[in-house]
Specification:
Elements: H1 13-33, H2 35-42, H3 55-67, E1 70-71, H4 77-84, H5 97-106, E2 110-116, E3 121-126, H6 128-138
Antiparallel strand pairs: 1-3, 2-3
Helix pairs in contact: 3-6
């Protein structure tokens, strides 16, 4: 925590304010440069390996569990990074993504809802089974 104290006895008020500001910048910079903060944005989250979900399926499930139902346009690699605000993404190419989503739907992990016919647009959400598998892998703490 950064504290500011005003000292009327000292005639160098501006100098005091600048030294406090410099101190604050050094503290903030060192915080964001720390390994823990960098690791949070660059490394994939912990998984238990209790299920047969692939890493890519789990990352798609992360998005659906975090954001709720999403349009297909949010699922390709570049859009995934943008919407999830992360430096990593899943490894599924744009050509293979519809096949993987179809397979996840066949397996009962996802449910797709058509939103328009021309152009065809779908919205995806986790099913109860998909949510249970995601929860078993990520072990979220719901009481936060």
């Amino acid at each position: 925590m950064i504290e500011f104290t005003y000292n009327k006895r000292n005639g160098n008020d501006i100098v005091d304010v600048l030294s406090y500001a410099e101190n604050a910048i050094v503290q903030i910079t060192s915080f964001f440069a720390s390994a823990n903060v960098r690791r949070h944005f660059m490394e994939k989250p912990y998984r238990t390996h209790h299920t047969e979900l692939t890493e890519d399926e789990l990352l798609i499930a992360d998005m659906l569990a975090t954001l709720g139902p999403v349009w297909y346009g949010a699922l390709p690699q570049r859009a995934y990074q943008f919407h999830m605000n992360l430096r990593y993404t899943h490894g599924v190419s744009d050509d293979d993504l519809p096949k993987m989503l179809d397979q996840m739907e066949i397996d009962g992990l996802l449910k797709s809802s058509p939103q328009s016919v021309h152009p065809p647009q779908f919205q995806y959400q986790l099913t109860i089974k998909g949510g249970d598998l995601w929860e078993a892998e990520r072990l979220p703490i719901w009481q936060r």
